[in-house]
Structure to design on (283 residues):
């Protein structure tokens, strides 16, 4: 009957309109909620760290940069590179840190360096995207100062690359996955009293200070597992605690310093942020 068919069509259209409205409303909600977190401006404590051009200080800074894995994301010359790019998830571009064209080195004052590395915050107060500042927060004033002094001496490289951005799926992940390391500044208690740095030495305290850099992937207790929010094909970070039966419990000091090598890296993984940055530590 033609009349009935008309009624059915009318209902189908109504349902489609309602569904479309629901989808649009959800999308708008995701955008608004994520946008307010992306544009939140942080007020940071007034901190200064010693920055000197003394060669020994700069050499210490280079060491801090190496053991912190800055190269693994910012590239061999620290001139910036795209670390992850997926049109649906987002684009994460580790900035050009040099004084060349497109580099933050030409614009940053010491306070800007402190805000970016220790607090994960841009000069405009908003959070950096996917920059592991939470792992650098513990750096002592002396180590951070040395790192900044070193960064100011690296050769300028011209490399102008478009900045980082979060796409729709990335925004959904930000809202739904607890502990996802996307908004660097959100994961730091900016006004907490500064931790007391341990003396440099072969001590568990100093080892703990160094190991904070490993927690971003191996977890706060270093017990490994899936890195929150990473694609399914990325390997879980290894449990590096000396649990009974762990291969690591049997490692000698010499073997462990050479390990965390990309040897076991799955062939499917071509993103360096998915793998342990151990290859850089021997420098
Ligand atoms: C896991 C990858 C990764 C590592 C390791 C890393 N960074 Fe970054 N860094 C990023 C990304 C991604 C950005 C860009 C963030 C953005 O555009 O919001 C960034 C941005 C920066 C910025 C720019 C801030 C700005 O306002 O544009 C500085 C400075 C910086 N990183 C310094 C360092 C230093 C120093 C180290 C080593 C101690 C380091 N990063 C290690 C990923 C990384
Ligand atoms: C960017 C993420 C990331 C960071 C940072 C990181 N690791 Fe790893 N690590 C991994 C992943 C992923 C694996 C597992 C690799 C695999 O299975 O192929 C791993 C494996 C290891 C292994 C086992 C290597 C082997 O051959 O069995 C050791 C040891 C290790 N990491 C130590 C460390 C230490 C110590 C630190 C800090 C100084 C650290 N990692 C920082 C991601 C990371």
């Amino acid at each position: 009957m033609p009349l009935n068919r008309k009624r059915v069509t009318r209902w189908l259209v109504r349902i489609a309109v309602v569904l479309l409205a629901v989808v649009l409303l959800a999308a708008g909600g995701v955008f608004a909620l994520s946008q307010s977190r992306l544009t939140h401006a942080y007020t940071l404590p007034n901190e200064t760290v010693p920055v000197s051009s003394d060669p020994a200080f700069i050499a210490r800074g280079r060491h801090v940069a190496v053991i912190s894995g800055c190269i693994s994301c910012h590239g061999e010359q620290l001139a910036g590179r795209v670390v992850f790019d997926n049109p649906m998830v987002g684009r994460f571009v580790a900035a050009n840190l040099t004084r060349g064209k497109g580099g933050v080195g030409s614009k940053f004052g010491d306070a800007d360096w402190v805000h970016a590395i220790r607090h994960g915050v841009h000069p405009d107060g908003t959070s950096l995207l996917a920059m592991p500042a939470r792992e650098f927060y513990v750096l002592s004033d002396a180590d951070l100062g040395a790192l900044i002094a070193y960064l100011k001496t690296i050769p300028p490289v011209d490399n102008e690359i478009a900045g980082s951005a979060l796409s729709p799926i990335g925004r959904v992940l930000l809202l739904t996955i607890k502990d996802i390391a996307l908004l660097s500044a959100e994961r730091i208690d900016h006004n907490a009293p500064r931790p007391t740095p341990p003396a440099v030495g072969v001590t568990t305290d100093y080892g703990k200070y160094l190991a904070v850099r490993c927690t971003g992937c191996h977890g706060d207790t270093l017990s490994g597992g899936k890195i929150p929010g990473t694609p399914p094909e990325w390997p879980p970070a290894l449990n590096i605690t000396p649990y009974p039966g762990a291969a690591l419990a049997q490692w000698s000091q010499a073997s462990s310093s050479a390990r965390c090598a990309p040897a076991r890296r799955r062939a499917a993984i071509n993103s360096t942020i998915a793998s342990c940055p151990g290859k850089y530590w021997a420098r």
In short: Residues 55-280 form one domain. The longest helix spans residues 2-38. The pocket of heme C (ligand 1) is lined by residues 65, 68-70, 72-74, 83, 92-95, 97, 104, 116-117, 122-123, 128-132, 136, 147, 163-164, 273 (CB under 6 Å). The chain has one domain: 55-280.
